[in-house]
Amino acid sequence: MIEVHDLSVDIGGRTILQGVDLSAPAGQLTAVIGPNGSGKSTLLKALCRDHRYSGEVLINGRNLTALSPAEAATQRAVLPQSSNLPFPFTVREVVAMGLTAGRPGPTGEALLRLPEQALTAVDLPGFGGRYYGELSGGEQQRVQLARVLCQVWRPVLDGVPRYLLLDEPVSSLDVRHQLMIMDVARRFADSGGGVIAVLHDLNLAAMYADQVVALRRGEVVAAGPAEQVITDQVVADVFECPLQVGLAPSGGAPFVLPQSIRRDAPVHSRVA
Amino acid sequence: MSSVMTMAGIIRQRREAGDRSHLGRAAVLVLAVVLVLAMVLSMTTGASGASAWTILKGWLGMAPGELDGVRDYAVIYHIRLPRMILGVLIGAALAVSGLLMQGLFRNPLADPGLVGVSAGGSLGAVSIIVLGTTVLAPLTALLGIYSLQLASFFGGLVTTFILYRVATRSGQTAIATMLLAGIAIGALAGAVTGVLVYVATDAQLRDLTFWGLGSLSGANWVKVAASGPIILAALAVSPFLAKGLNAMTLGEATAAHLGIPVQRFKLVTIVVVAAATGASVAVSGGIGFVGIVVPHLLRLVIGPDHRYLLPATALLGASFLLFADAISRLIVAPAEMPIGIITAAFGGPFFLWILLRRRSAFAW
User: Fold this and answer.
1) Domain count, chain B
2) Residue B345 belongs to domain spanning
3) Closest residue by Cα to residue A238 from A218, A254, A255, A257
4) B57 touches chain A (CB under 8 A)
5) pTM of the full structure
6) CA-nearest residue of chain A to B262?
7) Residue A176: which domain range?
């Protein structure tokens, strides 16, 4: 479990996060939602120790500040928003960096096969020999996810659950791959690992998350199961935008249909 | 023979697409052989007709009267051997320094010359050459024959730490700030060096000019003893930086997520670069482009994985400098052309070619 107690982050004298409490249990997918500038990415960065913070972050009961970088790398892997490489690495070489960093689990021959398995998991089988710099943005994002998966390949190792911290993992993906990548994250959680994902798409959050945390101006407004957080009330409040939440015909998960704020000027009447 | 078999074995090994580790291992083996050849070449070429082979024959009594044993012994052991050893050490040091800077700054065109480390080292050395008999006389008396090496190493270190202090805020080093600060500090060191050159005597000016062009011609055992341990220590540390350099290409934050203690890694890298560059500059002056040309060529062949790139760069850097030195000795024999002219003649056009290539489709 990743536990956050009274977390605050100041950057350049401005308070970005204030008194955030959160617990992300192993075996669950926790989605963090909120408008731009609400502190979602800062929260994730604090959990990776990229930012200084006050308060306490515990990972599997141990204080984050007490972990060495190498120890932390065996317990959680982090997907950044974007990565450019200054040197001509092949896709396989990038993915294999996850092998030397964390503790994937498998050893020997099986370890050497991991990069290709991870690439297959993100729907890039056979891409190992391509140059990273020649791929599209969405493909690069999936290569990075494959690298991250290699770092903590077994969601639970020696009885200790590991965590994926994903910063907008599907932001540059087409709809098919959005679902595919969320499935990968979902499977990781179902196998006993923990996932914390910053998501912009409320529908993906509703569909995949066990727990949704809504942030607004650096504070947690609501946290809980999707059907309690993704409601007309909370969504309108958090995003300051009237949105209609419905229930999906299959499964009954909430869904959000974006509508123009200008109610008085619906699309069809503007055409006429 | 056995190394050829090993190499064939490595290349035949089954491997996954995009895995170039076999190329890296093969390159290290091939370059080790190339370095041995370069060392033999370096020992057997020069203005004097002496060669290691004739010495050996003389010892074995196979060719009595064919050579002047005492003179050739002196040429081999007091001139060529220390020169060859310094060539190997300085070539490796310059090439590895360039590679480390490029990895640290995530920029394939970075070089100790670029961030003022060489300029700081030069200032230290020039101070000793110009002021060693007057203002700095107590210092040179104290340090004796080591004063040039230590002053240069000290200059490189001071430059690097000023750079580090200027560019580092709350434990984070901003690479862009560091590059710009490097240009400013380099210019400052250059200006002070200019003042020293202005007050130098004619004889000192001649020393400065030849030292500044870069040369191994003054090599002797004292210089080997003064610079060798520093360079060897720096080279010995560098393999431990390989994993960190790989991770750093993904950015500082991601390197930390991959378990690299980033601040400590950067500090160690900087000290290694300053030590290797300073100790080299003291002996040979400004030998340019080795740190750009060698890593770049190898990246084209074996890829940028620093676990193989580091040893390969050290080996090729050493060979490159020995070959350049051999050319510098032969081209205008019995006189010598400063080696910096040879490396610049290769490196300048190569650097322009890299810049032209970077404008095309590839993203590096």
Assistant:
1) 1
2) 2-6+23-42+50-60+67-357
3) A218
4) no
5) 0.86
6) A69
7) 2-271
